[in-house]
Write a structure and sequence with these properties.
By secondary structure, this protein is mainly alpha-helical. The chain has one domain: Glycogen Phosphorylase B (Rossmann fold, 3-Layer(aba) Sandwich), CATH 3.40.50. The protein has seven helices and three strands. A three-stranded parallel beta sheet has the order 1-2-3, sandwiched between helices.
Length: 127
């Protein structure tokens, strides 16, 4: 992956739904020193510092084009400090340990009792 991300001028993460594993594409790109333009969705919106990547609103094509142009001109290339932080804080081994801990310490909870839509509507209508 390092060769692919390293060969790119910029990585685009422009979907409108959160990535299942919290922004790994952006992290992998940043760890290779490749700039990222991402939509304000999921982990990109609030987990990764805005100084690490350029954020745009989904569907805003002109803003996205400006962000890509800025990245191509080298204005948002990840700093050495950003690359080092991403590599240490989001390393494969560290993330694997965190997934393992989450799985091993997970608790089984009783299902939440919910009403059907028809029961809810009857409650609204008749109290």
């Amino acid at each position: 992956m390092r060769l692919l991300y390293g060969a790119a001028d910029v990585t685009l993460c422009l979907g409108n739904a959160p990535e299942a594993f919290g922004g790994n594409v952006a992290l992998e790109s940043l760890a290779c020193g490749t700039p990222v333009v991402a939509t304000r969705v999921g982990a990109y919106r609030n987990t990764l510092p805005g100084t690490w990547l350029q954020l745009v609103w989904y569907g805003m094509e002109l803003d996205t084009a400006d962000a890509v142009q800025s990245a191509l001109q080298g204005h948002k290339k990840p700093t050495e400090k950003t690359v080092a932080t991403v590599r240490s804080e989001f390393s494969f081994n560290k993330m694997l340990r965190q997934y393992e801990e989450a799985i091993l310490t997970a608790r089984v909870l009783r299902p939440i009792k919910t009403r059907s839509l028809s029961e809810y509507l009857l409650t609204l209508r008749y109290g």
